Amino acid sequence: MKALRLIANLGYGSRKQVALMFREGRVTDASGEILYADDRVEHGNVRLDGEPLDPPAGMLLMLHKPTQYTCSTRDPGAVVYDLLPPRFRRRSPQLASIGRLDRDTSGLLLMTDDGRLLHRITHPRAYLPKVYEVTLARDLRGDEAGVFASGRLMLASERQPLAPALLQVLDARRARLTLTEGRYHQARRMFAALGNHVESLHRCRIGALELGTLAPGQWRLLAAADLDRLFTPRGSAD
């Protein structure tokens, strides 16, 4: 790929802006040799201002989404892209969230520009366990774990019952919920169906990939080992 196109596709600027970087001598190879816009290059051998480029297409990152941020660029107010370097929003292919967390939900959010990976993770047959920490408005009544595990719970306006879900009670108003589906506002609607209200919802794990100590609003790139943890077989992460 030509050097100018490579850098522009990574979101560092428009083609005009990137062309100026070349004229200013800011783009070199790994040895410090000046590169030109029409040079054909390998991604790993290019430096901008002496620094390696962002990962090529296929990038996967983990973000600790705070509340009050949404995952859609069409929503008003703060969006998760505001927490990332501005150039990430200009990448081609486009960087997108893998599934969504609503404005009032915090925790682990994955983002990628790899369409095949996005499909692999979100496909219903993936059965990736997603673990949420839930705080409720009222005390648990005691039968929630059995109802959620039954595979018979129907939500309003749904045509199919929910897949069995695991509920681990932590105390009277806190629990850990593991889902393998991603229906609209599913966790909140499940508790609402049993007469309770979710006060706070936090996703802490997908597969065996944990949010860990990543602070709210922070992100990190994921490596092959992280991807392996993400696709840990169902059940071994629990």
UniProtKB/TrEMBL annotation:
The keyword Signal does not apply. PANTHER family: PSEUDOURIDINE SYNTHASE FAMILY PROTEIN-RELATED, RNA-BINDING S4 DOMAIN-CONTAINING PROTEIN. It comes from Steroidobacter denitrificans. Pfam families: PseudoU_synth_2. It is an enzyme of class 5 (isomerase). One of its GO terms (molecular function) is RNA binding. Belongs to the pseudouridine synthase RsuA family. Keywords: Isomerase. GO terms for biological process: pseudouridine synthesis; rRNA processing. This is Pseudouridine synthase. PROSITE patterns: PSI_RSU. The keyword Isomerase applies. Residues 60-193 form the Pseudouridine synthase RsuA/RluA-like domain. Its EC number is 5.4.99.-. It comes from the Bacteria. CDD domains: PseudoU_synth_RsuA (cd02553).
